[in-house]
């Protein structure tokens, strides 16, 4: 019998998650039943949405219960299978969460080809983050040639894809990131038309210089001070796909400062703005096949570049997750659980 380790939610975090909010547990991996597959985790994904799932507050998905394994997408190797479509040694995309081994239903797995492209991309540029960028930008943002698209957290897996896809559609791409290394990466490696450090003292002035004709599409990943700087620069009929608000995820009380809801609604009215929150799953059935076809080709020909920030070992998951929430990662945050 195979021995495994999992990380369960021990307490609901108050503010930034602490080590004591998680508990490591050993378990014995059972034999797969009919229609099931036994898996060994190779990579697990770290994503901002996981912080929301640790809260009991009402949201688009049920919270992780105390004592349950923390959720998350995984790339795994098949150990044993009761299904003809999966054989030992196959590499698959699943949703095992923070654990070294799992039993999953075969109908929810997607077989990957590690010979064609690194399987870790199924958790990033060719997975949920990449599809989030693709669906949110093209369905809600609808960038047109010559328009200006601004994206926050632009060096992350979603933001970097948003900017590059905007360029592929003929728009200008302006990225907002934290730190000179990330700013340089956006301009020099990803080909953004402009990139700005939101930590700079003159951030608002740099944003104005980078968007002389205003902003047509703002892809929101952050919220907070970045959104406050962007809002006054939105053009008539501007579109704002709201993907995430990572600046708020660790807050324990309402943000300090004046109530800005009046300014927000005033801009929505006078500029005829469209602000639309979304969860990528609502577009998956219709758009996922087209995304995989287009994005796989873009990655293959170098039109869509990506970067991964890999931490080794399940033991290091809590610290890597804190780093993700504070912006310390540079690229898609992954944990390599096994070779």
TrEMBL record:
One of this protein's Pfam families, by short name? ADH_zinc_N
Q: Which domain of life is it from?
A: Bacteria
Domain Enoyl reductase (ER) residues, every copy: 18-335
Tagged with keyword Oxidoreductase:
yes
Q: Which UniProt keywords apply?
A: Oxidoreductase
Name used for this protein in its record: NADP-dependent oxidoreductase
Organism lineage reads as: Bacteria, Bacillati, Actinomycetota, Actinomycetes, Mycobacteriales
């Amino acid at each position: 019998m195979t021995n495994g380790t999992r990380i369960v939610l021990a307490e609901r975090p108050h503010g930034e998650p602490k080590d004591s909010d998680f508990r490591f547990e050993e378990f014995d991996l059972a034999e797969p039943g009919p229609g099931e597959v036994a898996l060994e985790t190779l990579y697990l994904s770290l994503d901002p949405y996981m912080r929301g799932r640790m809260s009991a507050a009402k949201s688009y998905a049920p919270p992780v219960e105390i004592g349950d394994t923390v959720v998350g997408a995984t790339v795994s190797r098949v150990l044993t299978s009761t299904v003809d479509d999966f054989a030992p040694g196959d590499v698959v995309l699943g949703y095992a969460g923070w654990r070294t081994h799992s039993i999953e239903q075969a109908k929810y797995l997607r077989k990957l080809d590690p010979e064609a492209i690194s399987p870790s991309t199924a958790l990033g540029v060719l997975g949920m983050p990449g599809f989030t960028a693709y669906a949110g930008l093209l369905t809600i943002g609808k960038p047109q040639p010559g328009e200006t698209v601004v994206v926050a957290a632009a060096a992350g897996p979603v933001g970097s894809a948003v900017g590059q896809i905007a360029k592929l559609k003929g728009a200008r791409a302006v990225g907002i990131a934290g730190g000179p290394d990330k700013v340089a990466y956006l301009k020099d490696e990803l080909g953004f038309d402009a990139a700005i450090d939101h930590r700079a003292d003159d951030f608002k002035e740099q944003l104005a210089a980078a968007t002389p004709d205003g902003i047509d599409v703002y892809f929101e990943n952050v919220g907070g001070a970045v959104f406050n700087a962007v809002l006054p620069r939105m053009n008539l009929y501007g579109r704002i796909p709201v993907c995430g608000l990572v600046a708020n995820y660790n807050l324990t009380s309402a943000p300090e400062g004046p109530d800005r809801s009046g300014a927000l609604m005033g801009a929505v009215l006078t500029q005829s703005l469209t602000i639309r929150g979304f969860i990528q799953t609502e577009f998956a059935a219709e758009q996922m096949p087209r995304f995989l076809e287009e994005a796989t080709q873009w990655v293959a020909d170098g039109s869509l570049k990506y970067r991964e920030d890999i931490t080794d070992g399940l033991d290091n998951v809590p610290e890597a997750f804190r780093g993700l929430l504070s912006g310390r990662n540079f690229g898609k945050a992954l944990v390599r659980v096994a070779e």
